[in-house]
Amino acid sequence: MTNKLLDIINLTIRYDTESESVEAVNSLDLTLNKGETLGLVGETGAGKTTLAKGIMRIIPDPPGKIISGEVFFEGEDLLKKNENKMREIRGNKISMIFQDPMTALNPVINIGEQIAEVICLHQNVSKAKAIKKAQEMLELVGIQKIRFNEYPHQFSGGMKQRVIIAIALACNPTMLIADEPTTALDVTIQAQVLELMNKLKREMGTSMMLITHDFGVVAETCEKVAVMYAGEIVEKGLARDIFRNRSHPYTIGLFDSLPDINEDSKRLKPIVGLMPDPTCLPIGCNFSERCPYRTEECEAEPVNMIKLSETHSVRCIKLRNMKDGDIK
Amino acid sequence: MSTLLEVKNLKKYFETPHGLLHAVDDVNFKLEKGKTLGVVGESGCGKSTLGRVIVHLLEPTDGRIIFEGEDITNLRGRELKNSRREMQMIFQDPHSSLNPRMRVRDLIGEPLKTHKFYSSKEEYEKQVEVLMETVGIAKRVANSYPHELDGGRRQRIGVARALSLKPKFIVCDEPVSALDVSIQAQILNLLMDLQDKMGLTYIFITHDLSVVKHISDDICVMYLGNIVEKCNAKEMFENNLHPYTKALISAIPIPNIDIERKKILIKGELASPINPKPGCRFAPRCIYTEDRCFKEQPVLEEVITGHYVACHRVRDINKNL
User: Fold this and answer.
1) Could you tell me which chain A residue has the CA closest to the CA of B150?
2) Which of A120, A218, A238, B182 has its CA 20 to 30 A from that of B99?
3) Could you give the CA distance from residue A121 to residue A55 in angstroms, rounded to a whole number?
4) Structure pTM?
5) Does ipTM surpass 0.85 in this model?
């Protein structure tokens, strides 16, 4: 049975500057099934946003270029589509929510029109109908429709993010890419927005790729998790694989860095060092420099993904010869 | 233990075209030497303003700030400058709080120069070197500019600047919010080590509740300029009494799929702090309100020893009281 919605194969995206080139996404494979929510986790510079923009084909070129790979969406390779075809997909079948609600809206157009715009563009409906639909969308995300004619500056951060969600969902997309949708929001507002996104996902059956650095948010929304480090996926699996059985030293390190509110540990265990310079990545494992389990073998050659179970795979040499769990 | 800092009825209002903005409204607390007071709340609750008023970056509208038994509220000129040696601040954004045209060594040495904190050029150089070592910045970056460094290193420079005058007290205003988790843990550990080594006292301002629990001895929760609850860190998470604190703590996403929690979702958003209505500031979003909540403002009272709450209905909501 094929219920693969998105299938990314061997995708490489490179940024070229005058003196250097950076492979922000490096031979990446990832799949998303229909109706699923995938959490893409990683720190600044891991390549999460580049990947999302690559799927949408909105990488600024120059300096960015998709070097190789295929991105199958509903069985068709997005990278082979021409710009006109892509425009029909963006905002219609695949929508994106950007991180910063303060800058994602046009400040001189009222929010109602910004929602109606996307409907007019993609659906063959009259202006009046588009406006009606836009008002429904507003109500759906919990904003009264009398505020239809107001401008972005009249809304708070949380409200703006709701408007952006309304725009993203206006055409009932098959897939939603949410790039750090709640990072700029306060916790109580974050809770409201996550609740809203979960509700809409249930009601509209949208598949979602949620990009975040917050494992707490992932725990509340995602069925699947992929952890990204320096342009590569280092561990992926079902939420329970990652939360109960995490195996890559980087994933383990990330969890250990988090202050746990349920425990009284007084000292955190940070990962030593910094992410490697993306212009000169090591030959072997990208994480080897910071890894407490490093061996010579790790630095010798690139590491492939190793399957620990049907659903769970990890990019780490140590785990190749080891039974699951030994590393912890 | 001796009290290092006491804040009495502190108020900070801002004039705006629409009326008076009550950023900090009647805040009281005492802070003991060597301890950390965490101040949490959402954006706009006045926590940063509170920090800035205490270190005299803003003039208080009313109230008193007492530091080591001395009233420093109305210090001016030279006396103010001297008092600033004792109280320093670490800022949120390591990208914009450092002068992009100064080198690392000059950035760290700047406070020393301002306060003439050395007797010879050699001593100055030595002090900068020691500071860099203390906060863990490698010597080789001494001549770099801030843009050449990552966020974690830049924040270490911020910490070094704050430490340079050997202060007794530091206000940390969201020092780790702009950093990645693995780097955030490094900076938190650094701050805690320095506290142990130098006997520093912190006010730690943040919106991140798991961070504040980790670093603080006492925590106070602010809402629209008021402190609504204050007690020790453990108690705040295990036995919180104010409806806002309950909602706030239940809203933290926990990175564990095996813990089932019931979320208390609160409706709406922060009301405007301009000309606030009488009554409890949280009342419009609170699910337990009665008439009184909209008429009189609750005062912070000690409900259990060391545990202060400002809520009319605290005894009705919490059956264990």
Assistant:
1) A274
2) B182
3) 20
4) 0.84
5) no
